[in-house]
Amino acid sequence: MTIHLLMVVENASTQMGGESSKNIQLFRRLRQKGLDVWMICHARCRDELKELFPEEEALSRILFIEDSWIQKLLWRIGQLLPYRVEDLVVGQLIHIITQIRERQLAKRLIAEQNIQLVFQPTPLSAKAVSFMYNLNVPVVIGPLCGDLEFPPDFRSMDSWIERLTVNLGRRSSLLLHKLFPGKVNAETLIYSDQSALNALPPGYRGRLVKMLEPAVDTSLWQHRQYRQPQAGEPVRCVYLGRLVDWKGVQYLVEAFLSVVKQTNAVLEIVGDGELRGQLEEAAKNYGIEQHVHFHGWQSHDRCVELLNQSDIFIMPSLRESGGHAVLEAMALGLPVVVTRWGGPAQTVSPDCGILVDPDSPGAFVQGLAEAIIHLANSPELRESMARIGPLQVKRQGLDWDDKCDRFIEIFEETLAPQSQKCPLERSRVNILEPKIS
């Protein structure tokens, strides 16, 4: 039986981070697996989607929401505010308006196109409000992540106004979930970990399914034969991501001061952001600018090329719910250094990477330096971890092919007649664990 599915997302783009690129993967792969998939998303993605899906039939199944004048005004106001205030207040207001209009369009599509199931894979936050309710078809939402905080000794990275805004936003979400009960009424809720489970709105009624959030396209990030540097070649470390404070790259640059004193390693920083000027200045002040190279934003093909030329991947993020870039490095066959916090702490095992405890800023810098030095001076360990990384991706079911098969199982279970379901299946205590291939 063909499942007629409607995906409701805000962004579907390869250029807006892992949360948005995930929606591209889902739309493409679920269609390839025989589902009749429609998608509603924001008009800002239209030009890219036209390039990604040039075939008329696929593009005809994507409907776009344009910004209203009030959303444009709110966006301008948000540019004057601190990032987290803009994200949690102004951004949420804009998102709510978008969802209201998406719900109206979804109701029309359901009536016109025989849609059987609505799937809302983003936003990732378990506390975010969903407007997908009273649609007369089952709704599946997730995988959801908990609202990740900074580690305790890094909480001061948020200003007092950002902390106040976050607390007020979380308190108000209880009321908003009552007014807009998409998650309360959803037939199936997919959650990633205990923090996401704890963050679900009170009174939810749906069946619970556990699934880790990130995934990787192993057809693009193919396991390569690990190549040790030749005599005289430096050990190449690479960071790939935005240059913002919560990614922790400022601590990585500081850690490299110790690394260059004990190894021949170099650091390739791929990405851009508000911290770039500060990081370049820090590298000069530390006297390591010859060992730290800034590449800026690069195309996907160039990113794959840079990672293929590297020996160690480093992601020192302090608030990473998922960690798609870490999985890409593991699938490629790179040993990784990550923070023992958030999403990467769930997907990286000690046999394919080193996890650094974020006990304090000073200890974190020292831990990063020690991890990099250990790997840089241990070619056999690097090669061993490189072999395990792709296996770790596979055994956790985080290849996109395996993950989409699991989604289809969840959709089929959700659509099954009530008489075929176990009486406890809708209970909160009946948690379905992910299937590991």
Q: Beta-sheet strand percentage?
A: 5-15%
Q: What is the CATH H-level superfamily of the largest domain?
A: Glycogen Phosphorylase B
* Helical/strand content category: alpha/beta
SSE ordering: EHEHHEHHEEHHEHEEHEHEHEHEHEHHHE
Whole-angstrom Rg? 22 Å
Provide a count of the helices.
16
Helical proportion, percent range? 40-55%
Mean residue pLDDT: 87
Annotated CATH architecture of the largest domain: 3-Layer(aba) Sandwich
In the CATH hierarchy, the third-tier topology of the largest domain is known as: Rossmann fold
Sum up the overall morphology in one term: globular
C-alpha end-to-end distance: 24 Å
Main beta sheet: 8 strands, parallel
Q: How is this fold's topology laid out?
A:
Elements: E1 4-8, H1 18-32, E2 36-42, H2 46-52, H3 56-59, E3 62-65, H4 69-78, H5 83-113, E4 117-120, E5 139-144, H6 160-179, H7 182-185, E6 188-191, H8 194-199, E7 207-210, E8 236-240, H9 249-262, E9 266-270, H10 276-286, E10 292-296, H11 300-308, E11 312-315, H12 324-332, E12 336-339, H13 344-347, E13 353-356, H14 361-376, H15 379-395, H16 400-415, E14 431-432
Parallel strand pairs: 1-2, 1-4, 2-3, 4-5, 5-6, 6-7, 7-14, 8-9, 8-11, 9-10, 11-12, 12-13
Structure report:
The protein has 437 residues and is of the alpha/beta class. It has two domains: 4-213 and 399-432, Glycogen Phosphorylase B (Rossmann fold, 3-Layer(aba) Sandwich); 236-395, Glycogen Phosphorylase B (Rossmann fold, 3-Layer(aba) Sandwich). The protein contains 16 helices and 14 strands. It has helices spanning 18-32, 46-52, 56-59, 69-78, 83-113, 160-179, 182-185, 194-199, 249-262, 276-286, 300-308, 324-332, 344-347, 361-376, 379-395, 400-415; strands at residues 4-8, 36-42, 62-65, 117-120, 139-144, 188-191, 207-210, 236-240, 266-270, 292-296, 312-315, 336-339, 353-356, 431-432. It has an eight-stranded parallel sheet with strand order 3-2-1-4-5-6-7-14, with helices on both faces. Strands 10-9-8-11-12-13 form a six-stranded parallel sheet, sandwiched between helices. Helix 9 (249-262) crosses helix 14. It is globular, with a radius of gyration of 22 Å. The two termini are 24 Å apart. The model is unreliable at 422-437 (pLDDT under 50).
